[in-house]
Amino acid sequence: MAAPRIVRIAILPFGMVNCHLIIGDGGCVLVDAGLPGSEGKVARALKRHGLTWADIRLIVITHAHVDHAGGAARLRRLTGAPVLAHCGDLAYYQQLVPMNFCSTGWFGRLFLRTGLILQPYEPFTPDILMAEGQVLDLSRFGVDGVVRHTPGHTAGSVSMELASREVLVGDLIASGILLGGLVRTQHAIRPPFEEDPQATALALQRLVDAGMETFYMGHGGPLPAAEVRAHARKLRRLG
Fold it and tell me: 5-237: what fold?
């Protein structure tokens, strides 16, 4: 397979919230679904590249926060594509329990008080539910790569590793000032929320050790492997 194209879709301006379209030889994979009501932005991105809803063969949700999973149910209906996610976040996708938010600093605490991250979204059950330790081959969806469980941000976070040595990691890492932002976009930071920094450090280091060179994320980026490696070391020092 030829190397896929990665198209960043800005759900909010300045890279504050992103989802990504992976255009492969045999179809497209949408990584994350954005906030509720984001389908118009996805449709415009498809149109710019001469594609339609029918070209999306899979929707991968990296974790259950509303800015990543909020539009999943609606996009599944529009595309007819299955939704893939990990069982560790299943109760959140089904809106059975409120999400747990572990703030990483003052911005996370302030963001939590706004209530924006707490807004409910249309519940759904993933069509492809990954189990602990499972790795899913994406070749049948037209993309040369795999989806792997990478817990840390949430228990059910997943990343999409491409044969091109590019990886989409959701919120395992962020960059810029506050949330994406206009400046220092090549500087790695912790996202506003993170359940287990040590698990996150381990997941990021494993991706670097596996040869991943460019890291795409939900907030800011992309980042080179050297910056990700340095960030993983900082997380380990948190104890």
Answer: Metallo-beta-lactamase; Chain A (3.60.15)
